Amino acid sequence: MTIEKQIIGNQFSGLGNETFYSCNPFTGTNNKFVFYKSTLGEICLAAEKATTAFKYYKLESGVDKATFLETIAEEIMNIGEDLITTCMTETALSAARIESERGRTINQLKMFATLLREGSWVDARIDTALPGRTPIPRPDLRFMYRPIGPIAVFGASNFPLAFSVAGGDTASAFAAGCPVIVKAHPAHPATSALVGKAIQQAAIKTNMPDGVFSLLFDNGIEAGIELVKNPLIKAVGFTGSFKAGKALYDAAVKRPEPIPVFAEMGSTNPVFILPGAMKEQGKNIAEAFAVSVTLGAGQFCTNPGILVHTCKDSEFEDILKNSFEKTTGGVMLTPYIFKAYKGGVQQNLSIDGVRQLAKGHTATSDENNLAIPSLLATTSAVFKDYQQLSEEVFGPSSMVISVSNKEEMINFASNFAGQLTATIHGTEEDLIEYNELLHILEQKAGRIIINGFPTGVEVCSSMVHGGPFPATTDSRTTSVGMAAIYRFVKPICYQNMPQSLLPEELTDMNPMKIYRLVNDMHTKEAITKNNK
Amino acid sequence: MTIEKQIIGNQFSGLGNETFYSCNPFTGTNNKFVFYKSTLGEICLAAEKATTAFKYYKLESGVDKATFLETIAEEIMNIGEDLITTCMTETALSAARIESERGRTINQLKMFATLLREGSWVDARIDTALPGRTPIPRPDLRFMYRPIGPIAVFGASNFPLAFSVAGGDTASAFAAGCPVIVKAHPAHPATSALVGKAIQQAAIKTNMPDGVFSLLFDNGIEAGIELVKNPLIKAVGFTGSFKAGKALYDAAVKRPEPIPVFAEMGSTNPVFILPGAMKEQGKNIAEAFAVSVTLGAGQFCTNPGILVHTCKDSEFEDILKNSFEKTTGGVMLTPYIFKAYKGGVQQNLSIDGVRQLAKGHTATSDENNLAIPSLLATTSAVFKDYQQLSEEVFGPSSMVISVSNKEEMINFASNFAGQLTATIHGTEEDLIEYNELLHILEQKAGRIIINGFPTGVEVCSSMVHGGPFPATTDSRTTSVGMAAIYRFVKPICYQNMPQSLLPEELTDMNPMKIYRLVNDMHTKEAITKNNK
After folding, report:
1. How far apart (Å, rounded) are the C-alpha atoms in residues B38 and B6?
2. DSSP string, B214-274
3. Which of A120, A426, B110, B495 falls 20 to 30 Å from B6 in CA-CA distance?
């Protein structure tokens, strides 16, 4: 039995009396890792250390922060096979999936390092002094984004690496210049501990201030709420359920000093099939849809939970049925998630007017928490009458909705709440004909996919993994991709600051050769007497 | 007696039974303008019209939105002298001040027009497809900022033009592509009606959709709260008191769909004088400080409400006293504001350990609502014990705090809540010696001013008029300057969108020749086979 403690900066701490263990979803038994639950004292200590660390960490150069991120990536790779096997026993995900997720996690850290080394992300703006302007001279004004303070990050159940301890939220917060306190997800605490120690090692090796990173354990909600309520925490990153995300949001906005919460709370990711595409590609779309719904036991935030089409005969649904019956389910991440999946499907099926269109099968049958893919069908009228049908059922399930014409499809789309993604399958003629649908979906979702599927979220500069409430609590940002760095910064304007005291991104010489807006011109040039 | 109605898109509406009048602060009497208070039905109609208008307005090109903004500027100028005289009778501000504020308002609209014509503000990012990438191909991904929806804007009492109906919030929301519903400030409804009609005219002349702009009147809080609670409103811009701003924030975050509130709620704008500057410039600083505190009867958000120094003898306070005694007060904006000013000064003076250091005088004595400049003094120990001393007293008042050394000054700064600005007077040696103070203030304020005064907020790309709570409800933005446009937009990612359906900012050809990030390179070039 291995006993794991909180990571608080460069130390470990196990001051609590309560413990919990890492559960194997295949068997429902203990993985032989026991975790101290964090105490209020430990949470406060982590926040205090983060605040002290912030004083120094925010002054680290882009290059030094980049080295820190790259060293985290190295240290994660140095864990080796142990990370893969530990994660498998905690999540029931396959080795191939975990290896690929590790690759994504490493890649994400390195991409933020590249962003920092290049440096232009700070959006430097300079308006030089106009001492002779009348009636009032203009002072010298220089603007850039600066870090906001210690960030609380909540690990997600479904991405034990890429959205957890060293995941996107942590990477973007570190890149922004903010210390991070992660609350590990109780579904994979041993994986979290391994990654947490890798970050701790990286911080020590690269001389980052003690407290730049902490990792807290708890299998209830108390530690997380206490963390969000701690006055030293300045923003929150979260990926998970609507219920948990909204509870953190409510706690954050009720604080004496409210703070921003970037909660990604899931989505039904509707897919619309337009008539031309249906005619030309119906079969291919049906097959690819079945794969997208059931990929990784359907445990993706971007899993397509709704498919809307205008097909009048039963041909398309027959193809869908055939494709879906070939799919295989899998063991879900936790007993709780499995139970919620089974219950969610059952509850939707109990509605008058909702029918089972198809079921997948399972490769084995002797394992616990084994989800069977389930495809339901209904009409837009029934869908409209039952609010619960518009809520995400996390797992390998989707719902097919047939509408009679374009108008009904557009009305249906208009009634959607916020989504992470919306997908349209259409020929170019379809898309012109259904232009209004496109414009509606642009208000409903963070990412619009044409002739593809929403699963598979590329980490790059152009990605948006976000969307209007209730998909997230802040539609103005993304939690995947390089633009995520802007969640954890605020603009500062320096007026008449001497060159020697300006951050180097704002000095006349522009030593980092970053792109800046100087007197409203985009340029990498230094400021000289001529362009001042 | 002129009767004014709500402006709802291209129509006027006076469905209510209740009215209020425009008050002359010099006399306390009716300016002979009567206003219908908006009804719930009118508020809902304005929100519905804004939502319909949004469908079309968000598709207007940057050039067409720029023409709209420029036409608003022209229509405001076309009001002529009537705007100045009406505004004077409602605000007691001087003709020169109002003319200068009108210039600023016009300039602000034109600057956003220039930003739109140039077009790079949308932060276009393109990652082109990598169909041959293994193991998974990369789709074509294109990112840009798009408008968020109808915005509620609350006019401020102290800037009847530049922070009101056609002020910064309205200009930035229109520029972003969002319709605007303004709730006029009851301190200057007739001024608001004139400007509102100018915007209405500009919208009609430039063929903007009916509902892109509405103006509502109310002299209580009901209409504003109803507006914020309306589900069709997607964000809120506000400038005013902490109490009102926080009430709107609380209403917005409790909605079924929470929305962002950008409330600028004032600040005490501390000024720190370091020893070297005191020695070299003490007299000049004292004189300039007295002017900054009493400018426009002290009715600026950036009015310096606290001055901290380490001077051990009484020499500096003597100079301050002399300078301050030369200052003149003036008639305040409203009887309510005057009463709050008098009460605030009185309440602070009633604290044991707070003394009156100096008083200004008044040019006349027979007018109503005439504020007398008031300079108080205390110690950091007393300041720390009384929370009320850290709250803004809106008007020509400030408080001098003498501290015994550097350590006490830094401790004092550490305990500040969020501010719009923080000012340091120091020689270059001082600033190096007090480097820690600089770093603390960077966490406390949106703008750091060296050897100047915070009054005078330049409208330009580098300005930040914002700061941590309680100065604002969102430190990640600014309400003055070009970066304000980002409050009213959200990123959208288009995946595999055909060229013909992409916004032109994202097409391969880049017809607007804007700066874009293409495969992580900053460029104005079109995308061709070679760089794809």
Report:
1. 7
2. EEE--SSSHHHHHHHH-TT--EEEEES-HHHHHHHHHHHHTSSS---EEEE-----EEEE-
3. B110
B468 near A CB under 8 A? yes
Q: Give backbone dihedrals phi and psi of B131, rounded to 5 degrees, phi first.
A: -65, -25
The CA distance from B494 to A423, in Å, is 10
| Angle between helix A189-205 and helix A81-91 axes, rounded to 10 deg | 150
Chain B neighbors of A439, CB-CB under 8 A: 55, 58-59
Contact residues for B162 (Cβ-Cβ < 8 A; gap 6+): B101, B104, B105, B108, B168
**Is A448:A270 a contact under the CB 8 Å cutoff?**
no
Would the CB atoms of B448 and A55 count as touching at under 8 Å?
Answer: no
Alpha-carbon Rg for chain B in angstroms: 25
For tokens 């964000």, name the residue.
Answer: B235
Retrieve residue A33's tokens: 């890792």
Phi, psi of A64 (to 5 degrees): -70, -35
Tell me how far apart the alpha carbons of residues B391 and B403 are, in angstroms, rounded to a whole number.
19
ipTM of the complex: 0.97
Beta B141-147 vs B125-127: how paired, if at all? antiparallel
Between CA B375 and CA B348 the distance in angstroms is: 11
Whether A41 and chain B come into contact, CB under 8 Å, resolves to: no
Q: B442 CB near a chain A CB, below 8 Å?
A: yes
The two structure tokens encoding residue B324: 């301050």
Distances (CA, A) of A209 to A202, A482, B163, B481: 11, 24, 43, 35
Which chain A residue has its CA at the smallest distance from B421's CA?
A493
- In sequence order, the 6+-apart residues with CB closer than 8 A to the CB of A334 are A23, A25, A157, A187, A369
- Residue B47 near chain A (CB below 8 Å): no
| Closest alpha carbon to A254 in B235, B254, B443 | B254
Contact between chains at A469 and B258 (C-beta distance less than 8 A): yes
Reply yes or no on whether A264 is catalytic: yes
Which distant-in-sequence residues (6+ apart) come within 8 Å of A107 by Cβ?
Answer: A459
Distance between start and end Cα atoms, chain A: 67
pLDDT values of chain B reduced to their tens digit, one per residue, 532 residues: 899 999 999 999 999 999 999 999 998 888 899 999 999 999 999 999 999 999 999 999 999 999 999 999 999 999 999 999 999 999 999 999 999 999 999 999 999 999 999 999 999 999 999 999 988 899 999 999 999 999 999 999 999 999 999 999 999 999 999 999 999 999 999 999 999 999 999 999 999 999 999 999 999 999 999 999 999 999 999 999 999 999 999 999 999 999 999 999 989 999 999 999 999 999 999 999 999 999 999 999 999 999 999 988 889 999 999 999 999 999 999 999 999 999 999 999 999 999 999 999 987 767 789 999 999 999 999 999 999 999 999 999 999 999 999 999 999 999 999 999 999 999 999 999 999 999 999 999 999 999 999 998 999 999 999 999 999 999 999 999 999 999 999 999 999 999 999 999 999 999 999 999 999 999 999 999 766 6
Report the predicted TM-score, pTM, of the whole model to 2 decimal places: 0.97
* B302 contacts B457 by C-beta, under 8 angstroms: yes
CB B147 within 8 A of CB B176: yes
Contact (Cβ atoms closer than 8 angstroms) between residue A476 and residue A485: no
Tokens of A147: 């870090």
